Amino acid sequence: MQIDLAALPDDPDVLQRMLREVVPELQAENEKLLLLVERLLRHRFGPRSEKLDLDQLRLGLEDEEQGAAEDEAARDAAEAPERPRRTQPANRNRGALPAHLPRFEVIIDVESKQCPCCGGTLHMIGEDRTEQLDIVPAQLRVKVLCRPRYGCRGCEGAVVQAPAPERPIDGGMATEALIAHVVVSKFCDSLPLYRQAQMLKRQGITLDRSTLSTWVGRACWWLKPLYELVVSTVLSTDKVFADETTLPVLEPGRGKTKTGRLWCYAVDDRPWTGPTHPAAAYVYSEDRRGEHPTAHLAAFRGTLQVDGYAGFSNLVEARRDASIQLAFCWAHARRPFYEFYTSTESPLAAEVLARIAKLYEIEADIRGQPPDLRKAVRQMRSRPMVEALHVWLQEHLPRVPGWSDLAKAMRYALRHWDGLILYLDDGRLEMGRVEVWRGCCRLNVSVAAPFVWRCLTGSTLAPSPHPARQTGHADFPHPAFSRPVRPSLSTDRRTALGRR
Do residues 169 and 182 lie in contact, with contact meaning Cβ atoms separated by under 8 Å? Predict the structure, then answer.
């Protein structure tokens, strides 16, 4: 209802009645807008995770620790040389250095082997040994391939020489080790190619960034069979985690970025001691249309653990044989309640969070147990709590304003309820799709390449065009890299791998 300020009534009773009708609506609208502002501020400036990131905490403490160490060193240097021995233990890591590291000894001996008292000959009665962690900086070297030629003195008609070995890049100067170093530095250490070129230049090697880009492109072509193997291995299982995330991508020639998508398909059977090794495969797409997961999962049969993205639901509806089941993520169902609670401290949202927390406590108790035991515990302990939560949500939803975020969170949970409770009847499933990240590091989306793939060991490979970096530098500066990488001109790589 709107009030025409130019036509306000003169009767005080009528005016009060109009205000009583309008004020509640305005208050509700203001409350809605305030909640929206708080959500936007938290999304823009607040933490993305719902728990404290220890890595970020350690990052903030690094400067303080460095400053304290510098002050301590200055105090030690200012003290008299004959100061008493340290009574407090030094702040250092305890325990021996890893045994697999190579050792080299530096013997610090006395200048004279004669006794300072009587002048006799000293003999060794013991020694003190301490270990320090040392580093040998990376050193470039030149690999010289020498292939002698042999001729016959008798006939002088034949010349014999060993064939030249294959190179990863025909006519290229880089060895396999150097290419691997460039790729690992770029993808695992987030070191862009222009910085690697600067580091090489300090050692007297001038390489253009486009040359390094060519090396990375060739490495991607060599690694493509491995990428295909990982994707097929992950999707050949009957239980897969699926997720997608945004990826800033450069648009060549425009100097701007667009938002691409990186789809993750992962398998992790460690929570129920399954036989499959944990692995995750990433596939790039230009947008979020549902046709992409449909194409990726065309041959998949089994249970897909996902969030509430509609594209996965469309995939299930398109399967007439019901060969795919969707197990929805409790972490995603919980998140709207958490966001509403942080903004309003609502007791209703707090009640839902407390109930879900008890379910996660049960999961912590049975993690690492066989599927039959996990299912039995869930049926006995979790199912009554889940059914009680379902009744609670149905009872309280009509009492909450329909426009509020709390009502939206309740409707989301009830709408996906069949998929949320699927884990109760299958001991192999997890409560949350986000469990895919357990024990591995997340993908660094600020660094990508023509193929980006990541196993839980930290490797990377999957199709992707030009990546955008926060530094503003593009590792693929010209449109040539938007085309597929041409195969090597040497002997067919697949045949050679098959012979090996």
Answer: no
> Whole-model pTM?
0.66
Least Cα distance to 436 among 161, 229, 184, 242 occurs for 242
Of 119, 42, 15, the C-alpha closest to 340 is 42
Name residue, tokens 């919980």. 334
Cα 426 to the chain's mean position, in Å? 27
276's tokens: 């499959």
Are 445 and 246 in contact by the 8 Å Cβ rule? The answer is: yes
10, HSE (Cβ side, Cα atoms, 13 Å)? 0
Q: Name the stretches of the chain with pLDDT < 50.
A: 52, 435-500
Q: How many domains is the chain partitioned into structurally?
A: 1
Q: Which residues lie closer than 8 Å to 439 by C-beta, 6 or more apart?
A: 268, 270, 278, 456
Give SS3 for 280: strand
| Segment 298-329, tens digit of pLDDT | 889 999 999 888 888 888 888 878 889 999 99
Q: Is residue 371 part of a domain?
A: yes
User: What is the distance between the alpha carbons of residues 161 and 147, in angstroms, rounded to a whole number?
Assistant: 7
SS3 at position 468: coil
**Would residue 347 count as lying in a domain?**
yes
> Does some domain include residue 336?
yes
What tens digit of pLDDT does each residue of 211-264 get?
998 899 888 888 889 989 999 999 999 999 998 888 888 777 777 888 888 899
Instruction: Tell me the residue range of the domain where 366 lies.
Output: 330-431
Question: Residue 54 and residue 51: Cα distance in Å, rounded?
Answer: 9
Q: How far apart are CA 273 and CA 292, in angstroms?
A: 31
Q: Is 445 exposed, middle or buried (0-12, 13-18, 19+ CB in 10 A)?
A: middle
Query: Within a domain: residue 319?
Result: no
Cα separation, 122 vs 473, whole angstroms: 65
